[in-house]
């Protein structure tokens, strides 16, 4: 099945160029990120279809997955 993937800021280096990822059914967010060698400790926020999720969330065909690193400022 295929999902859309958006990686933000320092995580962009892990995203496929076309923003699409082919994964098996019943794949969790964590498993999808492992496929791309994304270190989970570098991911602070996970959104699936605009809703905040945990790494254990199971992805569905056509889902939009967005990942964000920790952001600092001051």
Model description:
The chain is mainly β. It has a single domain, classed as Roll (Ubiquitin-like (UB roll)), CATH 3.10.20. The protein contains one helix and five strands; from the N terminus they run E-E-H-E-E-E. The protein has one helix at 29-35; strands at 2-7, 20-22, 45-48, 51-52, 64-68. Strands 2-1-5-3-4 form a five-stranded mixed beta sheet, with no helix packed on it. Strand 3 (45-48) and strand 4 (51-52) form a beta hairpin.
Termini separation comes to 41 Å
Number of strands: 5
* CATH domain topology: Ubiquitin-like (UB roll)
Give the CATH architecture.
Roll
* Biggest sheet strand line-up: 2-1-5-3-4
Number of domains: 1
Shape, per Cα inertia axes: globular
Estimated helix fraction: under 10%
Write the layout of secondary structure elements.
Elements: E1 2-7, E2 20-22, H1 29-35, E3 45-48, E4 51-52, E5 64-68
Parallel strand pairs: 1-5
Antiparallel strand pairs: 1-2, 3-4, 3-5
Defining key terms:
five-stranded mixed beta sheet, Ubiquitin-like (UB roll), single chain, 5 strands, 1 helix, mainly beta, 74 residues
Précis, in short:
The protein has one helix spanning about 30-35, and strands at about 1-5, 20, 45-50, 50, 65-70. It has about 70 residues and is mostly beta strands.
